Amino acid sequence: MFRQLSLGLRAGIVTEPAPREPSLEAVGARLGQEVRRLFGRSLQIRQVDAGSCNGCELEIGGLTGPHYDLERFGIRFVASPRHADCLLVTGPVTLNMAEALRRTWEATPDPKLVIAAGDCGRDGGIFQGSYAVVGGVAAVVPVDAVIPGCPPSPAALLAGLLEAVGRRP
Amino acid sequence: MTGAIVGALLQALVVAVASPLLLGLVRTLKARLVGRRGPDPWQPYADLAKLCRKEVVISTATSWIFRFTPFVLVATMLVAAGVVPVLGTRPALSFAGGIILLMSLFMLGTFFLALAGLDSGSAFGGMGSSREVAVAALAEPTVMLAVFALVIRTGTTNLGGVAERIGNEPALAAHPGHLLAFVAFFIVMLAETGRLPVDNPATHLELTMIHEAMILEYSGPYLAMVEWASAMKLFLFMTLLTNLFAPWWVPADLGAYALLLGLLALAGKLVLLAAALAVLETAVAKLRLFRVPELLAGSFALALLSVAAVVLLK
Amino acid sequence: MLGHAWALEVPWLVPLAGLSLRMDPLAGFFLLLVGATAVPASIYAMGYTRRGLGAYPAFLLSMAVVPLAANVLTFLLAWEGMALASYALVLSAHDERDASRAAWIYAVMTHAGLACLLAGMLLMAGWTGSLRFADWSAAAAGLGAPARNAVFVLLALGFASKAGVMPLHVWLPVAHPAAPSHVSALMSGVMIKLGVMGLLRAGTDWLGVGPPWWGVALMLAGTASAVGGVLYAVVERDLKRLLAFSSIDNVGIILMGVGAGMVFHASGLGALAVLALVAALYHAANHAAFKALLFLAAGAVARGAGTRDLEALGGLAKRMPWTGAAFLLGSLAIAALPPLNGFVSEWLTFQVLLQTMRIPRLELSLVFALAIAGLALAAGLAVACFVRAFGIGFLALPRSDAAAQAREVGGAMRAAMVLLAALCLGLGLGPTVVLPHLGAVAAQRLGTGAPLPGPDAFTVTVSGDFATLSMPVIALALTFGLALPAVLLRIMGAPRNMRRYETWGCGRLLQTARMEYTAIAFASPVRRIFDFLYRPQTRLEVEAHPGSRFFVRRMAYGHSTRALAEDWLYAPVLGALRLGAARVRAIQSGRINLYLLYVLATLIVFLVLA
């Protein structure tokens, strides 16, 4: 117990400044001033895995670590879609997950955002055209923004999320 | 009479306004201890404000109990704020009841929250409710014995009276029985407010949730009320710990200067306690659910020892 | 209770000693209890059933005579009348599967208790030379300590078995659920309080002031009942059996107050003794109110939904709104939550127990500390128990078709529940009105005059500045606290929109009542924590596919708890009785010559002795 505490105290704050590269493809018209005003200081995200290979999940997981530290911008991951403002969807949306994704979207209260992460989320990525895949998140729920990449790095994800809520890092 | 009403409103206001800050402070300190920059201590206010502007999605399986519960939670916390010696040793509603009333008010909130967890008809909610009431039931004997130890020393169950008498005789606070009761009460605070090692407030795994599982179905302003009530509960418990067991610079009268001094002293003590809580939460892991009764039994033993110490070392 | 004492003598009505009734404040209190509970129960019965119409008035009459009885015969005849009438009423619900077995166990236990009472009272009558209770308290000082202790133990056993104190409680969870609901309400609400009244009389009136160990024994028995009763209630799936175990819990709490009063009285602390007795009497009254309410509501559930099994109920709050609201109010009251009546009497009991440091003896402080811890645990578990009962029974989705088609009950039953709910609320908000009267009753009983003052009309004060309580202020503050966020939300214009959607099930395609938490699951943390008490037995049967044992066709899981008292106390005693009876049976050979020989031998023995 004390060893861990002393490790943490000796290492100090290792959080890096947020990246400034533009990385967002805004596809919807809902990313307007009103949404940015509402979610600029506080955004709760529910991550949905719609059949992804988990590569994107690993990168998203890195966002909560000390180096990228999503929490300093008021962005948090939550367990229930009823607590969420934004659905961060990964994966090409397999046939089996299509209805589950739709129900998750319905369970989220308005106003809400849907951000598709990764090339799979954009249009099916390398699984595009497969028999088991619907083909991109936009085929199931209305998407507001896409963060491309296979997988997108945590820096890209962070920059994309910040841009989505209009927050300057 | 009007003085009492104004006093009660003032205390409720202080507790209502300051409790999200305390919660945010604990979160920031926890983040700094693990090397993260962490959220702003003022973050919970932004979260609550945003939640109030969201839609409410209610499950079709629920009844009026589900919609009524957030109001009950806020109401019990506001009334409890009038009973706890926050600003001074004469809290406005102290004539209305002492520590037993306080614990019963918290139980009233727990009762309705557990019902709301069951009302949605989901297994998560039922699981959270069943665990929450079991933990709350086991924490009760410890609280009562710690109260007993305090009562033997000070001769009253009135919270303000306890604070005043211990404040007048600082030697009372150094008594081993007093310190043991403090530790026992601290463990009860962890159990009742859902902090590590009893329950992780930031977990996403429903099977490990106790408090969070009951509120999975809440959204929008109702969620804001529930979160705010649990922040107030943490604030009230920590105020009890500081002002009952270390009641120095808690003013007896409510003149403006004394009030300011009291607020500053309270703020300082709460910051210290928040730091201690942050260190503890960073250092320990969450206990398995069926190890929690062992922890609470340990706190019961400490409370029993404190009573014995107070009785024998008079 | 409100002032006058009167007496009535009718020498010819009852053999041997005549009917003798005397009203004193304590008797008046219990008479009021009988009457006040009988009114809603009778209103309820009008809408509930037509059976048992002969035994019911006899039951009420005998319960009214018991507190008033002033001599042994009147008391015992009324007591036995009460038992017989309730036996008949338990049998009247003969469409219940186990009504006859329940009535049998009840009859055996109540007569065993009667035997103890008879023994104790006749011993006392023999030693003091009088059958009148009034003469006993005067003559008790002349008896030696062993005699008084023996009488107290016998009387306490008899009364405690009627009150349902552990371990003499086994008839309660069997008889109360089997009886029709209004009878259960009266049995739980009033009849077991008459057992408490008997304990009070035996401990403070008939035998004079007893040694502290009487009070300590009652407190320990009370603590055991309080914790044990609620522990068994938490794992129970039959709604009325759950309420019966909860009655055992509450009788334990009342006994804690009675025992503490006796200890304070023996230590010379008159004011505290009065307070303790007041706490006990208040809790007796409160329990009558909210337990009767709960039993009537449970009966309404059984009538409306057709079952009492928690595993088959659910969703009744929407289908039976009046019953649901009544059960919720009763649950809040029995869980001792403000601003209702259960909170006030438990608060008073806690204040009494916390003042033990005024007694200079250390070992008594230990007993009191144990009692405080036990009461706190029982209070916490009662919250768990009634969250489970109301939450599983009334909320979320119905777990069976019967519950899905439940209909609200008729007007008479609803009116009775509303009456009792109003009584609970009144007793909760008005302790300042009730306490002076109870204080007078207790003071008269203990022979000390010590009223309970309050600084104004709304606050209760205990022992100077030890503790204060103001229920109307709390209720007002809670109402204000409920209104404030509602007003703020309205000003902010929130919530913007309210939408109905299914419960979050992780995107699952099907959401049925099978996915809800069950009653047995809800109690499982408590069951696991206290498994040394429950000693659960699980039964798991797995039926595999004939082709391969890895494919399971059917699984059955059964879980049961074993009752401690039944295993450790009753089974050995009953076993010994049977063994003894089998031995004695040898004298019943069936030959008439042998029987004539017995008669001759007994005659010779008596002639020699005389």
Describe the structure.
Helix content of chain A is 33%, strand content 15%. With 169 residues, chain A is α/β, with parallel strands linked by helices. The longest helix of chain A is centred in the middle third of the chain and has 13 residues, at 95-107. With 314 residues, chain B is mainly alpha-helical. Chain B has one domain. In chain B, 71% of the residues lie in helices and 1% in strands. The radius of gyration of chain B is 19 Å and the shape is globular. The mean pLDDT of chain B is 90. With 610 residues, chain C is mainly alpha-helical. Among the domains of chain C are: 1-208, no CATH class; 534-562, no CATH class; 569-609. In chain C, the strands form three sheets. In chain C, strands 1-2 form a two-stranded antiparallel sheet. In chain C, α3 (72-92) packs antiparallel against α4, α9 packs antiparallel against α10 and α10 runs antiparallel to α15. The longest helix of chain C has 36 residues, at 270-305. Chains in contact: A-B, A-C, B-C.
Instruction: Kindly report how far apart the N and C termini of chain B lie.
Output: 39 Å
Radius of gyration of chain B: 19 Å
Q: Could you give the order of the helices and strands of chain A?
A: HEHEHEEHEHEH
User: What share of residues of chain B is helical?
Assistant: over 70%
Oligomer: heterotrimer
Instruction: Give the helix tally of chain B.
Output: 11
Q: Roughly what percent helix of chain A?
A: 25-40%
Q: What is the β-strand count of chain B?
A: 1
Question: How many strands in all of chain A?
Answer: 6
Radius of gyration of chain A: 16 Å
Structural class of chain A: alpha/beta
Silhouette of chain B: globular
Give average pLDDT of chain A, whole number.
87
> Strand share of the residues of chain B?
under 5%
- Going across the major beta sheet of chain A, what is the strand order? 1-6-5-4-2-3
In terms of per-residue confidence, which ranges of chain B show pLDDT below 50 for 5 or more consecutive residues?
none
Distance between the termini of chain A: 34 Å
